[in-house]
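BUG: 3D viewer hangs when loading the predicted structure for this chain

Environment: internal workstation, default settings.
Expected: structure renders.
Actual: progress bar stalls at 90%.

Input used:
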Amino acid sequence: MRATVEPPVVTGQIHFDSHVTVVTEVACRLVNTLTPGYDGVTPAGSEAATPAVVRELLERPDYHPRVARHDVTELTELAARVRTVFVAANDGDLAAAVGIVNELLEETAASPRLDQAAGGGWTLHFHGHDPSLAVGWGAGIAVGLALAIGSDLAGRLGVCAARPCDRVYVDTSRNSGRRFCSTRCQNRMKAAAHRSRA
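Structure tokens produced before the viewer hung:
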């Protein structure tokens, strides 16, 4: 008697989780390093970034970009626009966030492409209309934010609740309960609450 092989179950769902995670984490690093404001109670983003600083923000074990001074300027401008997406999403103004994301998608002409992965296999990336760092990362970040906002992840784009800190974060917690950009800010607010109760 021949064994029956069951066909694989196909749900029709496509998961972009790894792509969304990578590009939104890079978006946070760019925003938190390149835009002015406060990291905890310390001024942040007020110093002019260098190519070395930006290269460190973008680098991964399999990716070592060359960063020129003009790339720093263009990525700083991109970071300022991406910050407005996080602020709008945090404030519940998804229409404003969507407007900015749609502008970035159109300006970068983000298009999907399968690229060979370093360890074998294929990965889905989104490329822009030219090979510059700002357009390439702008396309990827715009798509990542679009996927987050277009799904149930929009509420996970946040701005730190520990004032005066205004650094951004992506809430990857299981219960969607993150409110702070870092444990340092969380601990600062816990200490302040404890002092006020005492």
